[in-house]
Amino acid sequence: MKRQLWWRSLWLHLFLTPLALLWLAPLWLMFVFSTQPETAIFSTPTPILPGNQFVANLQSLQSDTNFLRTLFNSVMIAGIYTVLSIFLTSLAGYAFARFQFWGKGLLFSLVIATLTIPYFAVVIPQFILVAREAKTLLAILIGMGVFGATALLLAWLHFSPTLGRVMWLGYAVAALAYLFFGVPALREAMTFDFRLTNTWWAVILPALANSLGVFFMRQSFLSVPMSLLEAARIDGASEFRIFFRIAIPLVLPAMAALAIVLFLTSWNDYLWPLLVLSDREMQTAPVALGSLIGLTRVSWGGIMVGAVMTTLPFLVLFLFLQRYFIAGITAGGVKD
Amino acid sequence: MLALATGLAIALNSQLLRAKGIFRFAFFAPVVVGAVAYSAVFRLLFNQNGAVNAALGLEFNWIFDPVGAMAVIIIALTWRWTGYNAIIILAGLQSIPKDLYEAAQIDGASPWQQFWRITLPSLRPVLLFCLVLSIIGTLQLFTEPWLITNGGPGTATTTLGVYLYRQGFQNINFGYASTIAYVITLLALVFSIIQLRLFGRDQ
Lengths: 336, 203
Fold this sequence. Notes:
The structure holds 2 protein chains of 2 kinds.
Chain A (H helix, E strand, L loop, with lengths): L1 H32 L4 H4 L12 H11 L2 H32 L5 H10 L5 H14 L1 H23 L4 H29 L10 H5 L6 H12 L3 H9 L4 H12 L1 H17 L2 H6 L8 H9 L6 H34 L3
Helix pairs in contact in A: 3-16, 4-10, 4-13, 4-15, 6-7, 7-8, 10-13, 11-12, 13-16, 15-16
Chain B lengths: L1 H12 L6 H9 L6 H11 L5 H6 L9 H29 L3 H9 L4 H29 L3 H6 L11 H11 L3 H26 L4
């Protein structure tokens, strides 16, 4: 029996090792090519050991596009996006997990329903809103801010449940009225020229309210024992204090997983930044890199340097934080 | 790809495997690689004078052949997404109760029978989820064909995503592009409904 297991184990390794090497080959060659001169990349046999041309390739990449600047854009966009999005999604997730309010089920279904909408169905109206109708977008945002502030104020004043139900209705009517009359009026009132294209915010804002993030944070907050929160409430802690001091520390590992996924998604995003960032100085690293790929006279060594620089930090992180990456990925996958 | 991912997940879950960390890293690492970066790498690897031809001793011009171009994109996608699916399937595998296998072993079931009678049926919802996710993801494919083959040669690898980008953002024909967007949405909807029907709410 033992002998049989040993053989099976041997076969498993014999089969899996070449496959693993094959899987690692593109990454390894990406690294090798980034350090080789242009002629070596296209020579036979293919070089499999690193050369010493990394700096030269980086220089040619830097002269093809201002790559370091685009790298800076990428870091800032992904960083700001991750911090803001984590904050918003955890607030929303907490509300869905721990508060009872009228219309909660419907609202949550709506949030989840947005997950099933393909990105391409959103991209055209979103582009028009950001690139052409930025004033409308601003007007809507101002309105949402006003409504949000009112809601917070009402929550703070501790309205009774029955009154809350009536408030909801009034709130919906007010919101509809605002959409039909307030938004056009506010838009007319704005006399300045306002465009989001070629700013970091054009990339950051549309993806902020991430429904997968809301879902993920809700699941995490559900695992926080209600009794802990109740105890704090009895001790007279305010809702925000409970949220920041008790709930958040308990879900920090989940937040880390979500942060990694959000940062990575934003960092690797290509289509949307390509649409709204045309100015070379404002582009993200993948967009700048992508613009080089189709060209005929281009330094492939340079492109590989760019690929390595956008990938390597995450490969190293992945090596050490694999657990968090995988938690983030399976969160979207296993929903029961 | 899903068959490969399932096999991989089972292999990586096996107690017989040593140095699991290294193997996991090899297959899961592509998950963090951006679409632009690996598109660039695969375009370079499958260049007429590239590493793949050098290794196989071919002179085949992959990118400019309709079948070859399609093959390159499929290979690139397989490389990128197999590990991703394996992670999800692995999570599904680990949630199968151990006593099922113990009971089967006592009853004298072979490993092969255990796989067909226990593993696959238990994984059904997860596999279906992966399948639908892959189909919907492929419907929306843009970056890889855009950068590796530019939708060509001709329109051989023009996906709905590439077509939408061409119509909407290069020809500035938003109406036409919106129609394409509706087609993508409808197709995605159909596949989601099929998934719901097969997978059922009861599970």
